[in-house]
């Protein structure tokens, strides 16, 4: 008789675990379809971000550093392709930007 009670208790616990698992999964699925935390806390849409808009004002220093990174990449590409005239033009632009950064 005791074994029957244990079996019923085990089966009851399994049933409760299955129900709990279903509820947890249902809630996880529901939450995955709603807006995510970062989407609720930014005033911008994904489309605006893709277009290059950012939710804050970029400083002059940040803009100059970003331009230096872009130009450095171009200069490296031109040098590897042995387009030295283009690389020299880019190098001069990098020097101008560096001078602007030094004045900040």
Task: Characterize this entry briefly.
The chain has 104 residues and is mainly alpha-helical. It contains 5 helices and no strands.
Highlighted features:
single chain; mainly alpha; 104 residues
Number of domains: 2
Q: What is the N-to-C order of secondary-structure elements (H for helix, E for strand)?
A: HHHHH
Please identify the structural class as seen in this structure: mainly alpha
Shape: elongated
How far is it from the N-terminal to the C-terminal residue, by CA?
A: 87 Å
> Mean of the pLDDT scores?
81
The percentage helix is over 70%
Structure commentary:
The chain is mostly helical. The chain folds into two domains: 56 residues, no CATH class; 48 residues. It is built from five helices and no strands. The protein starts with a helix and ends with a helix.
Q: How does the SSE layout of this entry go?
A:
Blueprint: H1 2-33, H2 37-40, H3 46-50, H4 60-80, H5 84-103
Helix pairs in contact: 4-5
